[in-house]
Design brief:
Number of strands: 15
Distance between the termini: 112 Å
Order of helices and strands: HEHEEEEHEEEEEEEEEE
Number of domains: 3
Mean pLDDT: 88
Low-confidence stretches: 1-7, 216-228
Strand content: 35-45%
Helix content: under 10%
Radius of gyration: 29 Å
Number of helices: 3
């Protein structure tokens, strides 16, 4: 006897709903997204949805996306199940063209931007944000930069005499102070006066520059004077 042929499905299917949901969730398009299903889910994906309501929710995401779905017709559940599949998105990444030594700043002449298909969970370093960052350890040529490989550069070094600006209302005073610790842009660090008599906190504002934080810490003597 001849083998029965699967009947072609016309109209929208569950697959259409799943893919529209994925594009919206990932803020991507069909051209920038690759979805690979398991063959055993073919029949589920072909479920007709014309005149039906489809509810989709994300259950989890790692290298694979896991979705739960329910198909309703006339307020009755037609199908309820889960799907696990691979979803890759075309992303711009920064790839090294030579060695970058530990503590060295990333520059445009030592990297190039490439388009790669990656899982949505891949913690890449954004190309526009990576220039000027320093690498935590030596990076080999041809490596794709990840966010975990980079950190902001140290702008104030421990023991360095830096320019501090104290702003109170409309009054601004500049003074030279000594950093008690390393600091990166935006970090609050401890400093002391050059004669070491006062300690205070300041926010790193640039290379060798800080702004004193009055709200969080007032200038106080570093040691208490005994009563006489």
């Amino acid at each position: 006897a001849p083998t029965p042929q699967a009947q072609a499905v016309t109209g929208p299917t569950l697959r259409d709903h799943i893919e529209r949901w994925v594009y919206a969730r990932l803020r991507s398009t069909p051209e920038t997204t690759r979805i690979k299903y398991n063959e055993r889910d073919t029949s589920k994906l072909a479920t007709p949805t014309s005149g039906r309501v489809v509810e989709i929710r994300e259950i989890g995401r790692s290298d694979l996306m896991t979705l739960g779905f329910v198909v309703y017709e006339n307020e009755q559940i037609v199908l309820e199940n889960t799907l696990r599949f691979e979803a890759l998105v075309q992303r711009e990444v920064l790839v090294t063209t030579g060695f970058i030594r530990r503590g060295e700043a990333v520059s445009r002449d030592m990297t190039q931007v490439e388009q790669r298909w990656l899982p949505t969970t891949e913690p890449i370093a954004m190309p526009t944000d990576s220039i000027g960052q320093v690498v935590r350890s030596t990076v080999d040529p041809g490596e794709m930069l990840l966010a975990s490989m980079l950190e902001p550069p140290v702008l104030v070094e421990r023991g360095q005499i830096v320019s501090a600006r104290s702003i109170a209302g409309s009054v601004s005073v500049s003074l030279k102070v000594r950093a008690k610790q390393d600091g990166r842009l935006g970090e609050i660090i401890e400093l002391e006066s050059r004669d070491r008599s006062q300690r205070f906190q300041a926010r790193v504002a640039g290379t060798g520059r800080v702004v004193i934080v009055h709200e969080q810490s007032q200038m106080t003597p570093s040691t208490r004077s005994g009563g006489r």
